[in-house]
From TrEMBL:
The keyword Isomerase does not apply. The lineage of its organism: Bacteria, Pseudomonadati, Pseudomonadota, Gammaproteobacteria, Oceanospirillales. It comes from the Bacteria. GO terms for molecular function: ATP binding. InterPro entries: DUF815, P-loop_NTPase. CDD domains: AAA (cd00009). This is ATP-binding protein. Keywords: ATP-binding, Nucleotide-binding.
Length: 288
C-alpha cells in the first residue's frame, strides 16, 4: 500500500469513526451477576446489565410453594447437586418474572449468575451454552414470556439444548423459562383429531405429542394462579407500606384497591404493585 492510499484511508476512518458504535463492554463474572445475550451482534455477545431492582423473595406474597421449590432447586444446582430445568407458567401478573429477579437478588452472593435470552435469539442458544460451558461459574439461562406460534421453529433450538443434543447442556447451566402457556405452543381443536382410545387408555396424536414434548423437557413445573381477594389485599398492603408508610394503608385504601381490581377484571401481584404506585403517588402529590 503506497503512502497516498494509506493517508486517504486514514482520513476516511477519521470521518466515520464517530458514527461507529462503542466497543461492547466485556462481562466480568466476578463482578457482574447478570447479562443479556444478543445473537445478531457479531455472531453473539453477552452484555452485562445491573440488577433491575432490589426485589426480595419476602416481597412476593401468595406464591410460597413456588418460591420454596425454585429456591431449593437453584440452591441444589449451585452446590453441584442434581437439579432440574424449570418452567414457570400461569396467569399474567402472578409473579413468575418477579420470582426470577428476586431469586437473583437473593442468591447472587451464593454464586448464581443469570443470562437472559430473548425468544428471537433462541437460535443462538447452543452457541451461548458452549460459551458458558467454559466458565467456572454456575448460570441460569432465562427466557421470559416464552411462547411460540405454530410456524415458529425457534423452539427446536430450545428442545435440543434441554434434552436433545448429543452433548446436552453443561453441568454449570440450567434453563428457566416463564410463560402464560403450560405447553409453550398454541393448541388448537384440530390437534386432537388424531387422538384415539386404545382400550381404556387415551393416546394423543403426533401434533399433541410434539407440543407436549417441549414443556416435558423441563423437570420442574411451577403453576401460578390468580390471587383471591385476601392475598391480593395483603399484597396491596405490603406495597403501599413499602412505597409509602403504614399510615397510607387504611379503610379507604382497601376499598380503592378492591375497586381497582374490579375495574381491571382480575387480582394479581402486578395489579397490587400498580395500585400501590397509583395510590401512594397520588396521595403524595396532593400533600404537596
Amino acid at each position: 500500500m503506497d503512502a497516498e492510499l494509506s493517508r486517504r484511508l486514514n482520513r476516511l476512518l477519521d470521518h466515520v469513526e464517530h458514527w461507529l458504535p462503542p466497543a461492547p463492554q466485556e462481562v466480568d463474572w466476578e463482578r457482574d451477576v447478570a447479562a443479556l445475550w444478543q445473537r445478531h451482534v457479531l455472531g453473539g455477545q453477552l452484555l452485562p446489565v445491573p440488577p433491575r431492582d432490589a426485589l426480595s423473595l419476602d416481597d412476593l406474597l401468595g406464591i410460597e410453594r413456588q418460591k420454596l421449590a425454585l429456591v431449593d432447586n437453584t440452591r441444589a444446582f449451585l452446590q453441584g447437586l442434581p437439579a432440574n430445568h424449570a418452567l414457570l407458567w400461569g396467569s399474567r401478573g402472578s409473579g413468575k418474572s418477579s420470582l426470577i429477579r428476586a431469586l437473583l437478588n437473593s442468591l447472587a452472593e451464593e454464586g448464581l449468575r443469570l443470562v437472559q435470552v430473548d425468544r428471537h435469539d433462541l437460535a443462538g442458544l447452543p452457541m451461548l451454552v458452549e460459551q458458558l460451558r467454559r466458565q467456572p461459574h454456575r448460570f441460569v439461562v432465562y427466557c421470559d414470556d416464552l411462547s411460540f406460534e405454530g410456524h415458529d421453529d425457534a423452539y427446536k433450538a430450545l428442545k435440543s439444548v434441554l434434552d436433545g443434543a448429543l452433548t446436552g447442556p453443561p453441568e454449570n447451566v440450567l434453563l428457566y423459562a416463564t410463560s402464560n402457556r403450560r405447553h409453550l405452543l398454541p393448541e388448537s381443536l384440530s390437534d386432537n383429531a388424531d387422538t384415539r382410545l386404545v382400550g381404556e387408555e387415551l393416546h394423543h396424536g403426533d401434533a399433541v405429542e410434539e407440543k407436549i414434548s417441549l414443556s416435558d423437557r423441563f423437570g420442574l413445573w411451577l403453576g401460578f394462579y390468580p390471587f383471591n381477594q385476601d392475598i391480593y389485599l395483603e399484597a396491596c398492603c405490603h406495597w403501599v407500606t413499602q412505597l409509602g408508610s403504614e399510615r397510607d394503608w387504611n379503610a379507604e385504601a382497601r376499598a380503592e384497591a378492591i375497586r381497582y381490581a374490579t375495574l381491571r377484571g382480575g387480582r394479581s401481584g402486578r395489579g397490587a404493585w400498580q395500585f400501590a404506585s397509583q395510590w401512594v403517588g397520588q396521595r403524595r402529590l396532593h400533600e404537596t
